[in-house]
Amino acid sequence: MDPALNKVRNLFGFGNSQIHVGDNVTVKQVDNKCLADLRGTDPRLDKQRIEEFNGGLLDNLCNWVFTDRAFDRWRNDPDGRLLWVKGDAGKGKTMLLCSIINELDKVKPAKLAYFFCQASDEDLSCSVAVLRGLVYMLADNHSSLRELVEEKYDRAGRNLFWDNNAWFALKGIFSTILEKTKLEPMFIIIDALDECTNGLFQLLDLVITFSAESPHVKWIISSRNISQIERHLEESIQRTALRVELGTSSESNSFRTYLQSMVNVLATSRCYNHQTKMTVKLQFERNAEANFLWVALACQALEHVDSQKVIRTVHQFPRGLDCLYKHLLDELLMQHDSCTSGGVDRGMCRQVLAVAAAVSRPISLAELSRLVGTDAKDTERLVDFSHAFIALRGETIYFVHQSAKDFLLSPAASTSPLSINIAATHLDLFETSLRVMGSTLKHDIYELKRPGVSIYEVSPPDLDPLEQIRYCCVYWVDHLDAWGSESHEEVAKALLNGGVVDIFLRKCFLHWLEALSLLKSFPKGIRSIAKLSSLIQERRGTDELSALIQDAHRLMRFHQFAIENYPLQVYAAALIFSPKNSIIRHVFRKEEPSYIIKKPATEDDWSPLIQTLEGHDDEIVAMASNGGKNAKIVASASRDGSIKVWDVTTGERLHTLSLPNNGQSLDGALMAFPEDDVGILISTSGSRVNIWNLTTGRCEGVLEDSPGSEIIALSFLGSADSECVTLTAGGDIRIWNLETRLPTKTTKIASEDILGFAFGRIVHASLACDSSSRSRLLIRPRSLNPLWYLRPMTVWDIETGKCLQTIDDESFHIDPTALSHDGERVASNPSGSVIKIWEAATGKCLQTLQCRNKGVQVTWLAFSSDSTQLASILDGAVMVWSVESGQCLNVLHVSTTPRSRLHFVADSKYLAVSTGNTINILDVLLQEDQLLHSRTRSSIDRVLLSSNEKYLALYMTCGTLEIHDLEEGQSIWSEEPFTNVEDIRFVCSQEPCLEIEGYDRSIVPGGMIEIQCRVVYLPGLSEGGPVAHHKYKITGPWILRDSEKLLWLPAKYRPRMWYTQNVVGSSIAIGSDHGRIFYLQFDS
Fold first, then answer.
1. How many domains in the chain?
2. pLDDT tens, 646-659?
């Protein structure tokens, strides 16, 4: 069939879809992974839980609100877009909103989303959780909106919803949803804003902004009478928010209905006579102050009172909610005192209440049992005994109301014998967490028995050993930190060498990492270790523990991908590929896999390579980093058009964007960040500049230069994020306004410097636009005639188009050049390994730098953000120089290619160096073992193992061939047999040997190459080798055994090329960069 007939312009498939064009079928399967990754909670289930927790909604109880003037105006007036329901604790705000939701759910075709904030659960008490819940509910209920979310998710994955920039990404998605549905009505409801403890005003600003910008969306928010919320609303909103205030006469009939209903239910269940029933009702009316929660708590208390004592008891109930809490706490104490020896222990009850008040999220009955040291039945009895404050719903412990927790932590409860010492509770939770983790965690706790099993293949066993300690594994450091804010001296003791933290890490660190991976909480573990490191800084008597924690943090960063995705690799790759002197490796040496008989030779100490960022599918062709003191963001663009944005301090991938290639090569792509803002990124593709909003992950505009032109330099103008500068290869400088998408100024570089020079054009350009309004341009023109030298470099003023200086370094080749960020210095590589630093204003050569390897070509130059350091890439190394003194500050060995790029990041503490499709993050300050690299050979070109696994032959790119005796662990032969080696092979015959075929550079008459053979006799070749019972293979980053993943290879330990690896029997030899050979032998 004619291929031309199988063409259409654009077809898109969403969800589970199939596209059929001619003979071609494309199937897209989506298994709801996007929604699963988006889901933090399901607000619909939260609503169901809340209603059941409060005994259900009474019919018509809240119908009064539908006739309220404010509600009616909100519902029917186009300008009434925001309704604020406010009232004191217990006034029925949440249940009122549940009734409103039920009513609005009947309105079709309006879309509805809601969220219930809950201060006691960190997953329900932050602004990003609210926004995540709203987006989840809209996407789950409406397939058209789900497609909008999937569009972003396909490019970024789960991190889009959960990383440090999740708020901005979700806000952008939410904005897109509102834009796409602007012709359809929508209701958004957020309950208990005052319980949004993290990002309250960020959330309020979002509500205010979108309620003003989106007339089709109606908002309801509720909160207690908090003055800060009221003030923020009054100051930020143009029109006064509509209000329904509970506690006034508006809902008096509703309260009376509720009170009567609750008394009826109580009287029926407890068999009250008429007098008792009427007395209870009368006392409730006198003391409840129209507070629904007061009534509910009082009814709950009377459920446990003998009917003959009800009248006396109800007269003891005080007026007001806090007074009732105090009374119920006193009653709890009296019941303890009256208990027999088989009753509930007062101390245990206090402990249960304290733990419930101190934890970062609601915990399960199993978790609480482990934390207080009782079995599940006793714990359930303790919770039931404390029913006035906490309750068990399903398997989770909740406070009956946020006000109950607030009371227990308030001064009003401090005089009670059951009062809570929150600092002591944090200490107890910290110590208990260490103790129970220490007694539970172990190697392969789920008994997976497969070193390469993926976290996505794991299901918890029926009797999950982590069930009781999930909370402990994730939050133990947080309780140490919280305790430290109250008791610095006591925390110092815990962090001493040989203290409880030291003991735990030395016993359980790897087991803890395995558990974090199984619990899918590894990133939280990294943050916990970083927090632990900051807690221990500058404390005396902690040097050994500090070193242990630093080593642990390095191990987690270097092996993050392997451990997070393959839990049992924490005992394999994370140990055997860590340095010999790693404290963690030494402490857990007995955990190293026994199936690896000979382990690879690793470095003595951690190298400056912190982490390798992986994710691109094609070679990286451009990089950019943000400036400013908190610079930590790097963007990388690959040849296939994908842009990835990374946080180099955590290794997190923040965004994945798609760069249109418009049919052009992306090899010359450029990117730039503004100096102090990571919310925007600009990138080039041919003659176009794309403007990316990193809050939404969307391309929000395009700047169009002249058709056919090629943009070769790009920068923001100064510290502003509203203007940028471009330079084309033809010499056109344009200053653009990013809001209007139009150039505000165009300047032409003088023609005699470029176009008049024998078909010349600009082949390199650098822009320096710093915050001092100094904007300079460095250009390097050249002739297309290879017999002529490059033209001298010229420095230009961008604003005036005037040439400020000409710098002639007499370079003959297309060399890397760089312009410092302040525009004061120019660096060039006029020849070989020589680097020169010039003063831009005068053209004077200030420094001449000589790289160590004189025969090696420099391929990239970059200045630090403060212009005090210069970094250069040469074959397999990065050299860091002082611009002022010309001194070499550090030499960092890392895999590089001729197309590698580098950028200083994180206030010049790190370097980001691209290699192929990866980015290596290097510590600029960490000195490397230079003696090790002084012995390093040239790259390995071929690797060959003998059939009996006794010998290893290595052929180097420099022409040297080495033979190693693997049993003795040493080189037994090393020579340069020929200038060109064609083939090497082990021969097991009567005279076992290594045969080497090659030739010297001599051409025999007739133009034929004379192939010669040389033999190295190896008697040991005739000896038998081990019998392999498994088949080993290297595939990508894995060593496989019998086709099953066995050992993850970190990037720096992978074969340099497919021919620099060899597998024979149970032995594997890998030739990596810098001439390093890694040899492993497995148990045969």
1. 3
2. 888 777 777 888 87
